[in-house]
Amino acid sequence: MADATDDRLRLLIERIERLEEEKKGIADDIRDVYAEAKAVGYDPKIMRQVVRLRKMEPNDRSEMEMVLDTYKAALGLE
Description:
Layout: H1 2-39, H2 44-55, H3 58-74
InterPro entries: GapR-like_DNA-bd (IPR046367)
GO molecular function: DNA binding
Organism: Pontixanthobacter luteolus
């Protein structure tokens, strides 16, 4: 029983390690795309914000924008 449990744990850890490696590779690829975008004149910081906004549900995005507008008005930024 203990050997089966030990093997299962080892296999799970190895899977996690492989996935972490894949995640690192994907992160490197994403960084390369942002660098390419910057090289042709786009602003990676703004692109990251756009990607984040596109992930949001429309209602959540609308609510966030309303709150942001309220804060900006309160601080005299508009």
